[in-house]
Amino acid sequence: MTSSRFIITVIGSDRVGIVARVTTVMASYSVNIVDISQTIMQGIFTMIMLAEAPKENFDLTAFQQAMDAEGKSLGVEVKVQHEDAFRFMHRI
Amino acid sequence: MYINPNEILETIQMVRMEHLDIRTVTMGISLRDCCHPDIEIFNENIYEKITSRAKDLVRTTNEIQSLYGIPIINRRISVTPIAIVAESCKSQDFVSVAQTMDEAAKDAGVDFIGGFSALVHKGETRGDHKLINSIPEALASTEKVCSSVNVATTKAGINMDAVGLMGNIIKKTAELTADRDGIGCAKLVVFANAPEDNPFMAGAFHGIGEPECVINVGVSGPGVVNAAVRELENPNLTEISETIKKTAFKITRMGEMVGKEVSRRLGVEFGILDLSLAPTPEIGDSVAAILEAMGLERCGAHGTTAALALLNDAVKKGGAMASSSVGGLSGAFIPVSEDAGMIEAVKVGALSLEKLEAMTSVCSVGLDMIAVPGDTSAATLSAIIADEMAIGVINKKTTAVRIIPAPGKRVGDSVEFGGLLGSAPIMSLSKFSSETFIKRGGRIPAPIQSLTN
C-alpha cells in the first residue's frame, strides 16, 4: 500500500438523496473526493468515487462502518476499498 | 494510472457474486531451533515459538481484508515436519506434541495448523515411525492439527512399507473419530512428491528448505472462472482456455497484492502464491461446474479428463504470468465432499472412483475427500494409495490421497462434516482383494527418467 486513496462504490436502487448523504459522511471524516462518476446500469444506481483519506489519524475501520451503516439506512450497498485492489488486479 | 469503472465493477462482482476469495494466508514457521530430548521442554519451546511468531497474524489479515474488501477465509500455520524436530525426544509417542500445536493454534486464533508430518519416501527413522503411529490419537484428540506423510517421490520411488502402514493408520484414525463420521481422516493426507511450501491443508508443512518464517498465500476462485466461461457465446475450446488464463491472471494478481502487504506489515518474508481452484460446498463455487460449462452433461462423463487438463494448464499459465512467486500446488482441486457439483455427479452415478483416479493424473492434487464404506480393509486403502502414488511418481507431479473409511456407513449412505469440508456420498470400491500385494512391502523403485512413453 503506497497511497491513502480509496475507491468507494455505491450500488443499489435509485432514490433521492443518496449522493448527499454518502458525501456528508465522507466530509465528517475529512475524506476528499478526487473523482466521481455515477450511472444507472440496467435500472441499478451505481456510483464510483475515487477518494482521498487524510494521511494522519485516519480510522479506516470507523469510516467503513459509518459508510456501511449509512448505506444500509439508504437501502444501498456501500464499499470502501483501497485503490490497489483495483489497480493490481487487471494490469501488469 | 486511470482506473476503469468497468474493471471496478468486475472486481466487485467477482467478490460479491462469484465467491472470489483469498482462501488462506499461511505462516510457515521453522521449529528447527526447538529440539530438546525432554519432550516437555520441546513442547514448551514450540508453543513459545509458534505463538510469538504468529501473534499478529490474525489481526493483520483482518485489517487487510477490510482495506481491500477481499475476504480472507482461513488463517493457518505450517511448521517443520514434527518427525524431524521431535526425533531426539525420549518419548514413546508424539501425541502431546500435536496437543501443544493445537493449543498454540487456538491461542494464535488460526483455523488450522499443519506439519504433524513425516517424510518417509525412501525409508523411516525411529522418529518417523513414532510420529506415524501417533497420528490416530493425535488427530482424534485435537481440533486444528493436520497431518501428512510423504511416502513417494519420483527420485526415490514408492515406500510400500509406509503405504502398507498408512492403510492401517487411516483405519485407526477413522475408528477413533467414529462418532463424527471419521472426520480425523479429513485432516490426514498421504503424498507423493509433496511440495514444501503448500498453504493448503491438510497437506501444509514448512519444508526444510524454507526460511525461518514465511507468508504463503492460497487464492481460489472457481466461481469466477465458471462465470467467465459461461459468459462466452458458443466458444471453442481454444477460446475457453484463453478466457480461463485471463481470469486466472486476475485472481493471481489479487493474491499477490494481499500476500505482499501481509508480509510487509508483519515483517516476514513473502514466500509463494498458490493459485488453486479450490471449491467450497457453496453453490456456484464448484470446479465440477466449470467442467460442465465446457460442455459435459455431468462431471465424470467421457471427456472429463481432457476438460480438467485444459483447465489445470490454463490456470497455471495465467498464474505464472501474473506473479513470479507462483508455487505450492497451483491448479485445480477435485475434492468430492467440498464441491457441490462433484457430490451431485457421484450421486447420479456419473462419477466413479476409477474416473476420479484418471482425473488425478492431470489435476493438482489427487484423490481428495473421498468417503468409502467403513468396512473397507486397510489393505484396500493402501492399494488405493499405492495407485495414486504411482500416478504421481511416474508423471513427476504431486499426488495425494485423503480418504475416509466412514465407520458404519455403506454405499448409498453419506457423511456430513459441515463447513468447508462439506458432505460426501459413500463411493463403491472393487470387491477384489489387494492384500497379498500390499503385504509384500519393500520399495517400488524410482522410475527411469528417459524413455518417457
TrEMBL record, chain A:
CDD domains: ACT_1ZPV. It holds the Pfam family ACT_6. HAMAP family: UPF0237. SUPFAM superfamilies: ACT-like. Gene3D superfamilies: 3.30.70.260. Belongs to the UPF0237 family. It comes from the Archaea. NCBIfam families: PRK00194.1. Residues 7-81 form the ACT domain. It comes from Methanosarcina lacustris Z-7289. This is UPF0237 protein MSLAZ_1590.
From TrEMBL, chain B:
Pfam families: DUF711. It comes from the Archaea. InterPro entries: UPF0210. NCBIfam families: PRK05313.1. HAMAP family: UPF0210. Belongs to the UPF0210 family. This is UPF0210 protein MSLAZ_1591. It comes from Methanosarcina lacustris Z-7289. The lineage of its organism: Archaea, Methanobacteriati, Methanobacteriota, Stenosarchaea group, Methanomicrobia.
